[in-house]
Amino acid sequence: MSEGTKVAPPVGLLAELTHRCPLGCPYCSNPLALEGRVDELDAAAWGRVFREADALGVLQVHLSGGEPASRRDLPQIVGHCAEAGLYSNLITSGIGLTEALVNNLADHGLDHVQLSIQDSEEASADHIGGYRGGHAKKLQVARWVVATGLPLTINAVIHRANVSRATAIVELAIALSARRVEVAHAQYYGWALANRAALMPPREEADAAWAAVEAMRGKLEGTIVIDHVAPDYHARTPKPCMGGWGQKTLNVTPSGKVLPCHAAETIPGLEFWTVKDHSLGDIWRNAPAFNAFRGIEWMAEPCRSCDRREIDFGGCRCQALALTGDARATDPACHLSPRHDVVEAIAKADSAPAIAPGLLLSRLRAGAGESVRRGFLDMPPRPRRSSTAN
Ligand code: SF4
Ligand code: FES
Question: What is the pTM of this model?
């Protein structure tokens, strides 16, 4: 695609401010090779990225991580976002936030907070995150956020260890005065892909949780908005991943690489440009990685002639690669994929009842490019440590 070719602007930008995080959730969407603190963009560089995003047409910035509160300059970064006229959403575990910092972020123009919880039950939640006292801290953070008047969304990833409490998670979000709750069945990329056999619930449990949360929807209209993300491996058609490759959003990594999705670096041969060398607009329009799967020209059959090709865009490129070895293939989550049997076989095998202890990869204590193995349901959470941002 040449300079000047018309490409519709993105709506959202995910700013991964850091990959540092005090938690070690086994489904983390960060890459297995974490970027280190020394490579992180500074606040001024993020300010430039936000101005370029605004010029490009971006409306919303999701300030994410890792844990964004691991950065001492988070208020300045939020301020740069507000100065650029962008709606800012802080995606946080809550660990590292204090009441004073929440108020400071609100004063710097933060618009919304999305707070993750690991479960509705404290012991299980702390175990999943690998952080003793984490759940209680999150409940406290939720109260501070609501007290500032900022809208609050609660987000929880659903997997084998908490699938029976999906509705209790919605009830907890209501008790915390959240306006929205996202109940997202685990998506298997990065750390979650490595831990898939320990995370995937049996199909009947996933189906029951799905039906129970859907049943709450009507009853809770006007009380809370429920965003519900389906379990891919049990679906009939795939999700429209990222709203289509290079169509709605872009991700900027802590070091400034710009990706079409959080897992794009798993696809071999793609060339990623960085905000250090190019403007965001140039990257969005011309970077080879963004044009690799834009539109429908790249599609093979059965997607190419399917009437859903501009609805789900053939599903997820990263999942197609991970499960078939070919990023151009139809996402095998689709029942029309010639490789759909792969998904069915994995769903059956990985949701078997036994969980082998010690199989889980955790990013706890992991530095850049490192990972640590730990048991999931059999290891006590590590002791609480200071929540001061490092
Ligand atoms: Fe979507 Fe392709 Fe399946 Fe059609 S064949 S439903 S476009 S993934
Ligand atoms: Fe990369 Fe779906 S996560 S396209």
Answer: 0.90
* pLDDT above 90: percentage of residues in the chain: 75
- Please choose from 306, 323, 342 the residue to mutate so as to test ligand 1's pocket, defined by most ligand atoms within 8 A of CB: 306
Residue minimizing CA distance to atom 5 of ligand 1: 303
Ligand 2 centroid to Cα of residue 54, in Å, is: 24
CB-based contact 65:21 (threshold 8 Å): yes
What is the mean predicted confidence (pLDDT) over 269-281?
Answer: 97
How far does residue 389's CA lie from ligand 1's centre (Å)? 45
Name the closest ligand to CA 309: 1
Q: Kindly indicate the confidence band of residue 79, based on its pLDDT and cuts at 50, 70 and 90.
A: very high
Nearest ligand 1 atom, CA 335: 3
Q: What is the pLDDT of residue 369?
A: 41
